[in-house]
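Re: [help] complex structure
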Amino acid sequence: MTQKLFHRPAPGADLLIRNAHVLDPRTGIDGAHDILIRGGKVAELGAARALSAESLPPALQTIDATGKHVFPAFVDPHVHLRAPGQEHKENLDTGTAAAAAGGFCQVIAMPNTSPVIDAVTVLRSLVTVAGQQAHVPTGFLASITVGSQGSDLSPMAALADAGALGFTDDGKPLTSAGMLRKALQYQRLAGGVVALHEEDPALSGAGVMHEGAVSARLGVAGIPSISESTMVARDGAIANYEDARMHFQHLSCVESVEALAYWRGAGARVSGEATPHHLTLTEEAVRSLDTRFKMNPPLRAESDRQAIIEGLRSGVIECIATDHAPHARFEKEMPFEQAPMGTTGLETSFAAVYTELVKPGILPLGLVIERMTAGGALYGLPTPKIEVDLEANIVLIDLEASFKVGQHGYVSRSENCCFHGRTLAGVVELTVAAGAVVHEKVKERDR
Amino acid sequence: MTHHLISIEDVDRDGIERILFRAQSFAEVSGREIKKVPALRGRTVVNLFYEASTRTSSSFELAATRLSADVINIRASGSSIEKGESLRDTVQTLTAYEPAAIVIRSPYAGAAALVAQWTDAAVVNAGDGKHEHPTQALLDVFTLQSRLGKLDGLNIWIVGDVLHSRVARSGISAFQKMGAKVTVAGPPTLLPRQIEALGCEAKPTLDEIAQADVVYVLRMQHERMQEAFVPSLGEYAARYQINHERLRPGQLVMHPGPVNRGVELSADVIDSEVALIGDQVRAGVAVRMAVLYELLVGSAAPVAVP
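Output below.
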């Protein structure tokens, strides 16, 4: 099988985590355990304190995780790492370090770079750089159309052979139904998932925020929710007709969730993702005209947010994806209408969802962990699981600890985080990705 | 009142009344032969205009001059803004001159609030995109108070292109604060979705315009329209023009200017007794004097004018 994930080589971890509350919704484990990691693999998983000191190597790094949680590390199927061409915003090194800091063990990067990833040479060079710089295994989508211009198919089969997990013109909608249909037909040869940023430009017009009560007050042109939902409804029909594999990116409104549920019910092979910001924030945040709250799709009404939460709960929406979209400070320090769209999200994804939805009892912790680890499987990647003999992909989180977002800066090169300044619970203390320690906050170790 | 005037939401009813009381005194100054007071002598006011303006920029300039301030006028054309300098860099450059106030007009919502983050000067929003134009709202309240005494219980209809109008958004809020009931009316394509959330009624026709005590007519803003919102200006005029056939006796007519004669307003109404348009322009200078005075000298200072 063609290699689809790329990262820099790192030594397999040797590590003992003592007395952690281990929760993996897929294996059913949910309780205090010790985890022994040897050479990057989970060697033993036993009841807390059951592993006797005599059987362990004397110099083994040991972490007392009493009162803390271990989950399978997260997967983010939607990040913008900005390389090549926009390295002033982010690069593979900083972007994947931010992912490691957020507890991720896999990320999938979008192709709306400069140049667009629409050619094998561009993808090959990125794969090479990822092999030198990526802290966590990184996959790539290539564009559906050349330059994401919507008029000619990219060499999808060759791109898939070179490692592309799928195809998207994300950042720009693919407006032509005929073009989309050709891509879906060609998918039978090339494989890979076709992922869609759904937006009808004729309806969004010059809009820069959700069309609703807040845009009416601000006099800022709105993007109506129908600009997304009508495209989900249309494209779900095309996916169904072609029996193609289609993924809807960053769903933001009630009607989109309904359209996805409808086509799923009709048997179409369609999936969807939701972002932490659409799950936790609404158009009300935009009243400040703070450009950190400018993203596409926009933060919508409270009823939309509730529908996204319900979609995630019911499984109509299978996964959480950050749409991590870094922009340089000078680019965001603009009047709202002029600033570029996007918020960073890798370093706050879990904490935002945990603080806003799990702590208040709206969603169960296990469900959120399941949805935060499901995004790779949608693209055919292995799902991280905590099981003996498997490569270690785990995150250690202190749910009792909290942090003020941005107070000590960001690991990401950019600081345009919509949760900036908020206090969030859930501090990532350790991330093990593909068997290697890629992020470690804890410096005090007991042995 | 805060250090800045960014939004009409920055001022409550008491604040509006205080500013307009002071404007009353300044209106008297404007009636004198020597129309100047030394209130801002030695202070600098920067007028930073990123958008074309006649009455707002000239009235701000006149207001600052009549308060004896030194005035710098900067316009987008012919300045480094044209060379692509960012708003932040422009503001930082101007801040080096230590202005007491920066008056800014921008085609973008929130520009004045951003400027306030980047400077110690008092910032006055002279219009930010389609968002707010608070001094226009204040001078409109002043004009109505001067004619009618109070706005309490008044029915004010704002008619026309509400979608693109910062005057409407600041006006709705200011009129409501002063006790008026506001209705917006215009072509359905030019009424923002959920405008009712601002506490006003929205009507797609002028069938009930007889309810209005004051008809506030908005300019059809061709320059802000990137597409056709009405089939033609002729069709707009046929349905929404304020003329003597649509007005009943006793109704007053206002317009923020500049007027498209024969489109939103008929020529005979503009030139008639019921139109307060000239009063609005005159009020502009006194009200902007009062705003600058309020921000730079403060409400603690005596109202009396030397």
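The interface with chain B takes residues 205-206, 211-213, 215-220, 222, 224, 289, 330, 333-338 of chain A (CB under 8 Å).
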